[in-house]
Amino acid sequence: MRERPADRRLWTWVVLLGFTGQLAWTVENMYLNVFVYDTITDSPTALATLVAASAVAATIATLLAGAASDRTGRRREFIAAGYVLWGACTAGFGLVSVDTAASALPMLDAVVVAVIAIVVLDCVMSVLGSTANDAAFNAWVTDSTHPGNRGKVDGVLATMPLLAMLLVFGALDPMTKGGHWALFFSIIGGVTALVGVVAWFGLREPRRPRPSGTYLSSVLHGLRPSTVRNQPRLYVALAAWAILGTSTQVFLPYLIIYVQRYLDIDGYAVVLAAVLLGAAVISIVGGRVLDRVGPSRAILPVAAVYAVGLLLMFPARSMLGVIGAGVVLMSGFMLGVAAISATVRNLTPPDRAGQVQGLRMIFAVLIPMVIGPFVGAAVIAGADETFVDLGVVKQVPTPWIFPAAAVVVAFIVVPVVLLRKVDAPPTPEPKSLETTT
Fold first, then answer.
1. Among candidates 4, 11, 34, 22, which has minimal Cα distance to 256?
2. pLDDT digits (tens, 9 = 90+) for 178-216
3. Quick one: CA torsion of 210, 215, 217, 220, rounded to 10 degrees?
4. How far apart are CA 409 and CA 359, in angstroms?
5. Sign of the dihedral defined by the CA atoms of residues 58, 62, 68, 69, in that order
């Protein structure tokens, strides 16, 4: 197989669009619940509704927008316009408050009105973000790369959520603690919209074949049993992604609480920064190795590294011990995501890169987020460890969430073995990255 290095233009857009998109997702995933909790209501039902509604909206939007971008053959417009509107919607969160709701609809419960407004706005934001980032941008990456460089590209993309998290946490978190939520949302929204404008004028995209049939048939194509039978390796790879993602969701939602409350480590920000930076460096370097050995062949070894990290977290109690185990864990996880993502890209039909992003959302986001947290919650409930917070007895996560996650990821052996047994289609020839429209 000929290897053609990704050019400078490709890397510029991968980093710029990938990192900016993860900045916006960090706000939605990490800070929106905090905003609601601090300024509107502490109701767990409201927070759960917010998370569930946005996950469903994001998945549906990716399915629909991915198919649309395949049929039009224009990723740039979806990316650029989507980022601009995504940024504007993110900035809009700062305008929602109980006082504003009371002024607009004084005859109704202001808290209920504010919660409804946030849920609706979050769903709109998730639709825009998924259209621009999950559907169009990820499809553009598939279009613009080839089997010889996808491991490197996906290795870098796997670090973007962590680096975005560090930037937001380090530079902008003081704003949230000071209650300057409107400024916080405006900065992230403004940056996202600005990058969308830049992408409109500067982003290039290769010409790709378009799928035949109607738009509805394009949307439903990936969900048909006949498609699964015709492309078994693609769906086996997606199943591996679902297992890896579910494993991480067993412990990830409870990780900071575990470090703070069970381990009693006050400097969790130091732990987080050290783990994320160390794992990001390893992931970027490891991406080159993925291309040499082949992403599909690397899935099992890097999943084993991830499992070792999970088992090392079980006895770790000191800050240094947690950092060491955490670097192993997160390095294995990010390289696992990079290996599976590159494998999925390599198995993606040339005319359906957008549609496959919808499938990716189902397997990599929706399934793990529905199953994983409940497995972790069951483990925590079974351990029945508690602590006292201001006189209130609260349940605390225990180290058993990490062996439980290791048990889940062990099932990845099944799809990896099937991936090797199922006949592989001919490897496509690498294409030029300079073809533009």
1. 34
2. 889 999 999 999 999 999 999 999 888 777 666 766 777
3. 100
4. 20
5. positive
Copy the structure tokens of residue 384. 């029945």
Please give the average per-residue pLDDT across 217-234, as a whole number: 82
Q: Are 431 and 4 in contact (CB under 8 A)?
A: no
- Contact, 189 vs 88, CB < 8 A? yes
* Listed residue (272, 242, 255) closest to 380, CA to CA: 255
How many angstroms separate the CA atoms of 343 and 298, rounded?
10
The CA-atom distances, in angstroms, between 349 and each of 59, 143, 234, 319, 358 are: 20, 10, 9, 46, 14
As a whole number of angstroms, the distance between CA 329 and CA 323 comes to 10
pLDDT 10s digits, 290-318: 878 888 889 999 999 999 999 999 999 89
Provide the mean pLDDT of the chain: 83
Q: Which of 209, 210, 208 is nearest to 433 (CA)?
A: 208
**How many other CB atoms are found less than 10 A from the CB of residue 257?**
16
In DSSP terms, 386 is beta-bridged to: 395
Per-residue pLDDT at 281: 85
Q: Which residues contact 359 (CB under 8 A, 6 or more apart)?
A: 222, 235, 238
Task: Evaluate whether 310 touches 358 at the Cβ level (below 8 Å).
Answer: no
The encoded tokens of residue 164 equal 């975005």
| Residue 362 exposed, middle or buried by CB count within 10 Å (0-12, 13-18, 19+) | middle
Question: How confident is the model at residue 436, as a pLDDT?
Answer: 39
With bands split at pLDDT 50, 70 and 90, how would you rate the model's confidence at 47?
A: low
